[in-house]
Task: structure prediction
Amino acid sequence: MKKIEKVCIYCASSHKVDSTYFEAAGKLAAELVSNNISIVYGGGAVGLMGKVADTAMNMGGRVTGILPRFMDEVEWGHKSITRLILVDDMRERKRRMIEESDAVIALPGGTGTIEELFEVISLKRLGQYTQPIILLNTKDYYKHLIAFVNQMVHENFLRAEHLGMMTVINEPHQVMDALNNSPVWGKDAINFAAV
Result:
């Protein structure tokens, strides 16, 4: 596995979520910056997105946002990050976020976060993405998703080996251990992608 220098973070833009999620997002950003890891994210200025970016920037970290132009037109983009890359659409945004990073961390989020997460999991299943995928399970947010993935295995939609595609952590301070000790995953995963 290559050295992790840039991490993609998927997370919510809602500013109405519980303060516990904001605290965890800030702590996660601080852990990454303290370990000299740059952040790549969706480019938003509010919600958990804004908290991650603001925390990292306030600590002198490097933050790259990737935002579709139509979102920038309604001023959703963060104006004070290291670099904001404008792209044509959501598909390009997702592709660039993955390409610009060495690992993925999913914080709690809504449909966009879940879509991004499952796209990268699908790519990993096919051996097209081999880097760590971490779920930050703040307040047990992902318990139903984790149960759903286990149900996929139980019902033979996934293999038991596919449970190794992601690592679940409950606290931000566990992120470096999870990034550095994620199960090795290779391009040969295509050979056991089918059930």
The mean pLDDT is 96.
